[in-house]
């Protein structure tokens, strides 16, 4: 199995987008008009991991402002976890953000997604706060200096 990586600075082809949406649904159990939500994000960046033509991982982010990049959504198919794919996608995203002049990357996660929380902390993120979202779930805010 050779995993390859690709990136998009705009909406990908409909075929790739459909693969991302299917994977998002597989990972999170919902897709909540992901395509429409992506279209409204400034300076959208999409990084994907491919096994042949199948999208097995993705990381989506966008500009918060000139200095801050927001790492928004990401996931890896459960059949491909523990192979360094999430780590590689994060590295690709952060390199892009740094190369574009962003000074920090911000993200949010939920306590129930422990593997993502641990990955973020292992990769230099600091917890900068917490809040309760509109659904009453606690969220953890993290930031990394680039």
TrEMBL record:
GO molecular function, one term: acyltransferase activity, transferring groups other than amino-acyl groups
Keyword terms of this UniProt record: Transferase
Pfam families listed in its UniProt record: Acetyltransf_1
Every N-acetyltransferase domain range: 3-146
Domain of life from the UniProt record: Bacteria
InterPro entries linked to this entry: Acyl_CoA_acyltransferase, GNAT_dom
Name of the featured protein: GNAT family N-acetyltransferase
Organism in which the protein naturally occurs: Virgibacillus indicus
Lineage summary: Bacteria, Bacillati, Bacillota, Bacilli, Bacillales
């Amino acid at each position: 199995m050779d995993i390859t990586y690709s990136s998009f600075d705009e909406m990908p082809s409909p075929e790739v987008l459909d693969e991302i949406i299917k994977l998002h649904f597989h990972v999170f159990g919902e897709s909540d008009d992901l395509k429409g939500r992506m279209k409204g994000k400034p300076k959208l960046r999409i990084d994907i991991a491919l096994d042949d033509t199948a999208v097995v991982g993705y990381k989506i982010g966008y500009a918060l402002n000139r200095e801050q990049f927001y790492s928004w959504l990401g996931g890896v198919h459960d059949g491909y976890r523990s192979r360094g794919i999430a780590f590689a996608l994060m590295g690709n995203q952060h390199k892009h953000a740094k190369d574009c002049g962003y000074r920090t990357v911000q993200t949010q996660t939920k306590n129930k997604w422990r593997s993502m929380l641990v990955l973020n902390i292992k990769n230099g993120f600091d917890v900068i706060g917490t809040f309760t979202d509109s659904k009453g779930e606690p969220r953890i805010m993290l930031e990394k200096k680039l």
